[in-house]
Design goal:
Number of helices: 21
Helix content: over 70%
Oligomer: single chain
Largest sheet: none
Number of strands: 0
Shape: elongated
Strand content: under 5%
Structural class: mainly alpha
Radius of gyration: 29 Å
């Protein structure tokens, strides 16, 4: 009966503490916590709640003192306790202290930081572009990282144009996990962004040999091959995508249209050929399909092809904001300002609702 009574006290006062913490009533939470400690030993979850309360009020020293008290009492902290402490450090850009804290706590026999705390620090270092510090931590904890977490690290490096570090991190990744489709999509996207076209073909071949591409990787491969002028290979990959996922839905075609048609004249020609094949065979095309081709032709300044495609578009589609807005945008991209104005006036006469693309075009025209 005595144990049951203690449990009831712990549950009741613990619930009050959690309620106070949730309501950000930190003084009341601290008072209730001290009262609870005088009767029974709080559970790790209650310790975690009160430490979170300390951190929210900026009392990092008190939070660390509580953690030390838990250690002395051989209480194993809730894993999220470490995560909360790391979050406090990184939100105040105290990255060195966060690193020292996790390394010190990792040697404790009474509960150690789990992967979540380390990952939070790794992500924060990446966002802050502290890549050297990030690399040192990754070397220490790489066995606990999963593919999804490696992919995010690669993305941080790629977006910062740290291509050499991204490739070095990728090599380290392969020693502990097998890359997936997202890994290769990330690599190819960022190699294109950094204009490292000399590496494209190598990683396209590796991706095709390692994983079965999903739609996003197919798109990255098609665009990458287009960027290095391998248009026949790009079209072959599109056909593979068609066979693998076919019959393809409009969304899949749109990925290919964007990848083939956005970078160069030859790619735009192949995009048009693919589009006409789909149209003539009764394949699935939606408003975005037409809009994507329109904007790609405008981007490449394929003026005669754009004008012909506009006529085809008007023949097959009722006036609507997406397609007509894309027409105006495409004409502007192609440098045909007067034609864009005429198309805008035609929209007004037809009563076509203005969408996002149309408003953007109107801003450029004005």
């Amino acid at each position: 009966m005595e144990a049951t009574g203690i449990d009831r006290i712990r549950l009741f006062q613990g619930a009050l503490i959690n309620a106070y913490v949730s309501c950000e009533a930190d003084l009341d939470a601290n008072r209730m916590f001290e009262k609870l400690k005088s009767n029974v030993e709080p559970s790790p979850r209650i310790w975690k709640a009160i430490i979170s309360s300390d951190l929210r009020s900026g009392a990092i020293s008190r939070a660390l003192d509580r953690l030390s008290e838990m250690r002395r009492k051989a209480i194993r902290p809730d894993p999220y306790t470490f995560t909360d402490l790391v979050q406090y450090y990184v939100s105040h850009r105290r990255f060195d202290e966060a690193t020292k804290f996790l390394i010190a706590e990792s040697s404790s026999p009474h509960g150690q930081p789990d992967s979540l705390a380390w990952i939070k620090l790794i992500y924060a270092l990446g966002k802050a572009q502290k890549f050297e510090a990030q690399l040192e931590i990754v070397k220490q904890v790489k066995p606990i990282l999963q593919v999804r977490q490696w992919n995010i690290i690669l993305e941080h490096l790629g977006k910062a144009y740290r291509t050499a570090e991204m490739l070095s991190m990728f090599s380290m990744m392969k020693t502990v996990v097998t890359p997936n489709e997202t890994t290769y999509t990330t690599l190819l996207t960022n190699l294109n962004r950094a204009k490292r076209l000399d590496l494209i073909e190598k990683f396209v071949e590796e991706a095709q040999a390692t994983v079965q591409p999903d739609l996003f990787l197919y798109s990255a491969i098609i665009k990458s091959l287009g960027n290095i002028g391998k248009w026949k290979m790009a079209e072959d990959v599109y056909n593979q995508m068609d066979q693998h996922f076919g019959p393809l839905k409009a969304q899949s075609h749109n990925i290919a249209f964007h990848a083939l048609g956005h970078e160069a004249d030859e790619g735009a020609d192949r995009m048009l050929a693919v589009f006409h094949n789909i149209l003539n065979s009764g394949g699935d095309l939606d408003e975005v399909s037409w809009a994507t081709v329109l904007q790609s032709l405008g981007h490449c300044r394929k003026i005669s092809e754009l004008k012909e495609f506009i006529q085809l578009t008007e023949k097959h589609n009722e006036p609507n904001s997406i397609i007509w807005g894309a027409m105006v945008q495409a004409l502007l991209k192609a440098g045909l300002k007067e034609e864009a104005k005429e198309k805008m006036e035609q929209m007004n006469k037809l009563g076509v609702r203005k969408g996002f693309l149309t408003y953007r075009a109107a801003e450029e025209l004005s």
